[in-house]
Amino acid sequence: MSYNWTTCSLDIKEFVIQLLTKTKEIIKDNFIGFYLHGSLAMGGFNPHSSDIDIIIVTDESLEIGTKRRLAKLFLTHSKNQYPLEVSILNRGQLNEFEHPCPFDLHFSEFWRERYEEELSLQTYEFLTGEVRKDPDLAAHITIINKRGICIEGKPIVEVFPLIPKSYFISSIVGDFNDCLENILENPVYCTLNLIRVYWYLREKVISSKQEAGNWGLTSLPTEMSHTLHKVIYNYSNKMDCYNFEKGEFLFIKNFFANNVGELLTN
């Protein structure tokens, strides 16, 4: 069973609101807004496997001490019930948007070990080092503008710039290429992402992974149907309900590589 912010359980909402409250206690008057994107905003959130995707906006850049406290908060909060993916940007980074976009702080489970090591050793190189940039932010901000949710703070239209289409395409194509390479290791996530990139390039539809999967069942070649049914079921329920064979994804991989390549060159 999958959900969005309106239909999700009280536990999920309390998890998000608790994170918001603790984040504001750390950021204080520097806080501008707290915004949802991804599956919890668009639909398709699976409590068994989905991340909660958040962008937090501040007025000024974060001080080092504030970054440390936020990193500790995210380490404690993430996977307590649900994994987090959080990016923190300041107003200047949004007002003078560039691609890839710089950010003040990013957390996801991918970075957990690095943060834990730095905080335990009190080195903080990853928190205080050079300015880092994230090409995915062009896609995240586009989705916030189209389908995001402001949980608290200034309205989305007042905070986020409109992202040039070329930046958005660059962002999603980067993820598309990663998914082509990793479809056998992560078949559910990668298959659904391949579909939604193809759907956007073909019809300019910005979709959730679940919406893309449902569209794929009725719009993609029937040779994919059996595998897509399993992918969508795993995504909406528990990821290991169905197993896959390597051969199932050869046609899918070749189809999207060829067709997306043609759409990008036309």
TrEMBL record:
Q: Look up keyword Nucleotidyltransferase and say if it applies.
A: yes
Whether Repressor counts among this entry's keywords is no
Q: Which UniProt keywords apply?
A: Antibiotic resistance, ATP-binding, Nucleotide-binding, Nucleotidyltransferase, Transferase
Q: Which residues form the Polymerase nucleotidyl transferase domain?
A: 21-94
List each copy of the Adenylyltransferase AadA C-terminal domain by range.
158-238
Name the chemical reaction catalysed here: spectinomycin + ATP = 9-O-adenylylspectinomycin + diphosphate
- One Pfam match, by short name? AadA_C
InterPro entries assigned to the protein according to its UniProt record, in alphabetical order: AadA/Aad9 (IPR024172), AadA_C (IPR025184), NT_sf (IPR043519), Polymerase_NTP_transf_dom (IPR002934)
Q: What is this protein called?
A: Spectinomycin 9-adenylyltransferase
Q: What are the top taxonomic ranks of the organism?
A: Bacteria, Bacillati, Bacillota, Bacilli, Bacillales
